[in-house]
Amino acid sequence: MDIFTTFKIAGSALKAQRIRLNTISSNLANVETTSTPEGGPYKKKSVYFETQNIPFSEHLKSNMGSEADKAVQGVRVARILEDQDPPQRIYNPTHPDAGEDGYVEMPNISVLKEMTDMMSATRSYEANTTVVKSAKRMALKALEIGR
């Protein structure tokens, strides 16, 4: 495995975690949104990852290499799904979107869970940033060998 493969893998993880963080921030921003253009309250969105397929040329190259090269794969966002659970119904007759019975349909978002997911995504992003920095330092040290 060359140094550029490490950059590709860490880069794919950075991109995936950035999308995850954007989705979490969207969920947190809309935790009180009761009406959307689609109608009804905002629906929580979740990001699902999958391993990233290697292009044919790289797959051919890895099959000609060592066994360790075959096991290397990046990550990508497979899909972003909306939560299908029913919205929370909260009694608040003074709210402008309250029904005749006084209940308001609110997004089914747990701020605590979103904050936990955000911390996990941030830690993963930091870990992959550290991988890129370490690989860069190794490449620079390798260039100094000939001096």
UniProtKB/TrEMBL annotation:
<dbReference type="Pfam" id="PF00460">
    <property type="entry name" value="Flg_bb_rod"/>
</dbReference>
<dbReference type="GO" id="GO:0071978">
    <property type="term" value="P:bacterial-type flagellum-dependent swarming motility"/>
</dbReference>
<keyword id="KW-0975">Bacterial flagellum</keyword>
<comment type="subunit">
    <text>The basal body constitutes a major portion of the flagellar organelle and consists of four rings (L,P,S, and M) mounted on a central rod. The rod consists of about 26 subunits of FlgG in the distal portion, and FlgB, FlgC and FlgF are thought to build up the proximal portion of the rod with about 6 subunits each.</text>
</comment>
<feature type="domain" description="Flagellar basal-body/hook protein C-terminal">
    <location>
        <begin position="101"/>
        <end position="144"/>
    </location>
</feature>
<dbReference type="InterPro" id="IPR006299">
    <property type="entry name" value="FlgC"/>
</dbReference>
<keyword id="KW-0966">Cell projection</keyword>
<dbReference type="InterPro" id="IPR010930">
    <property type="entry name" value="Flg_bb/hook_C_dom"/>
</dbReference>
<dbReference type="GO" id="GO:0030694">
    <property type="term" value="C:bacterial-type flagellum basal body, rod"/>
</dbReference>
<comment type="similarity">
    <text>Belongs to the flagella basal body rod proteins family.</text>
</comment>
<protein>
    <recommendedName>
        <fullName>Flagellar basal-body rod protein FlgC</fullName>
    </recommendedName>
</protein>
<dbReference type="InterPro" id="IPR019776">
    <property type="entry name" value="Flagellar_basal_body_rod_CS"/>
</dbReference>
<keyword id="KW-0282">Flagellum</keyword>
<dbReference type="Pfam" id="PF06429">
    <property type="entry name" value="Flg_bbr_C"/>
</dbReference>
<feature type="domain" description="Flagellar basal body rod protein N-terminal">
    <location>
        <begin position="9"/>
        <end position="34"/>
    </location>
</feature>
<keyword id="KW-0969">Cilium</keyword>
<dbReference type="InterPro" id="IPR001444">
    <property type="entry name" value="Flag_bb_rod_N"/>
</dbReference>
